[in-house]
Design a protein that fits this description.
Blueprint lengths: L5 E4 L1 H13 L5 H16 L10 H9 L10 E6 L2 E5 L5 H19 L1 E9 L6 H8 L3 E7 L5 E2 L6 E3 L4 E7 L2 E7 L6 H10 L8 E2 L5 E2 L2 H7 L8 H18 L4 H4 L8 E9 L9 H12 L16 H13 L1 E4 H9 L3
Parallel strand pairs: 3-4
Antiparallel strand pairs: 1-13, 2-3, 4-12, 5-8, 5-12, 6-7, 8-9, 10-11
Helix pairs in contact: 1-2, 6-7
């Protein structure tokens, strides 16, 4: 088996490298720093598939004109705490950070806010915006549609997106964050497994002959990823696409799939200001009691433990901050090639 070589890059070095590359690709200084920080934080938290591993493709999309970094969102409609925006094919991470900031302002005013954005690009790791809002004291719900990459339940050809969704709430100085795609594994996770020469820990889809498998390359080749919860995940994916499209007045999955790449996506951002609730003072204690009970779970394997959504991120973040972010050497070489 071929040895997989890794290098360890400090967060500061990674952020500065990303920023230099983005500045070479028509980003303003502010937007370059912001976007580079999002990619670096995703990597620091162990979400390499939507951090450093995804960065080369992001730059290639800029070079091909799919992402227009000089463009910024424009508001198209307002009704109370609901706003529709056009992302104008700008940088997905920058647009999503902006939308999160905007929806928190709406929630401060109305208690709850909704920003729906059409014509934007891949936001990378949706959980980043859940952390952003929860750290500011807001409940956050957000989701995006994607190109068609998953079959409807009982079908063989991809008609659904894996439409990631994020739920987040404040917890102490950090947050509880669930960030999940509607497919058992995100395509980024399967691509990383291929790069590492690994199989998936559980079955993740079908091969071209219709055999269920845990071999990621076979699933990537067939475009037959397995929805979470089988028919339930397929149904949820369908409704997420419907809601995203109608709330944003943007493109649906079947329309995005006609583009040359995954671009012009539709996204929804919802925030709730917890300080407006009458039980605000007791919320922290309520969450603590739920987690305390959750932690009394009996592990299936002796010596293991259960973790709540977002808990392992904190452990990974600390480890990578101390020892450097592990990056496949081939990926870092590709990143550095954009500097020349």
């Amino acid at each position: 088996m071929t040895e997989i070589k890794q290098v360890f890059i400090s967060a500061e070095q990674m952020q500065q490298t990303f920023k230099k590359i983005l500045l070479k690709h028509q980003f303003s200084l502010k937007k370059a720093e912001e976007c580079a920080t999002i990619f670096t934080t995703n990597s620091l938290d162990g979400i390499y598939t939507h951090g450093v591993n995804r960065f080369p493709r992001f730059v290639q999309y800029i070079q091909k004109g799919y992402v227009l970094p000089q463009n910024k969102p424009s508001r198209s409609h307002v009704f109370g705490g609901i706003e529709q925006w056009d992302g104008n094919l700008g940088s997905g991470p920058n647009n999503a950070k902006f939308a999160t900031e905007r929806v928190m302002k709406l929630a401060k005013k109305h208690g709850i806010g909704c920003v729906a954005m059409a014509n934007t690009n891949h936001w990378m790791r949706g959980g980043a915006y859940g952390w952003q809002a929860a750290k500011e004291g807001f409940v956050f719900i957000g989701w995006t549609n994607t190109t068609a990459n998953m079959p409807a339940w009982g079908a063989t050809n991809p008609k659904l997106g894996n439409n990631p969704i994020v739920f987040a709430t404040p917890y102490g100085e950090d947050a509880l964050v669930l960030d999940m795609a509607m497919s058992q594994y995100s395509f980024g996770a399967m691509e990383l497994a291929v790069m590492r020469g690994e199989n998936l820990s559980v079955v993740g889809g079908y091969d071209k002959e219709g055999n269920i498998t845990n071999e990621p390359q076979l699933i990537l080749d067939s475009w037959r990823s397995l929805p979470v919860g089988f028919w339930k995940g397929a149904g949820l994916s369908f409704l997420l696409d419907v809601l995203t499209t109608i709330l944003s007045n943007g493109l649906a999955t079947h329309q995005i799939s006609q583009k040359p790449a995954e671009m012009a996506c539709s996204q929804v951002f919802i925030a709730i200001d917890l300080s407006k609730l009458p039980n605000h003072s007791s919320i922290a204690q309520t969450i603590e009691s739920i987690i305390h009970d959750y932690k009394t779970s009996v592990p299936m394997q002796e010596g293991s433990s259960v973790s709540y959504p977002g808990e392992r991120v904190l452990t990974t973040r600390k480890k990578n901050a101390e020892h450097g972010i592990p990056v496949l050497a081939t990926v870092w070489e590709e990143v550095l090639s954009f500097l020349t």
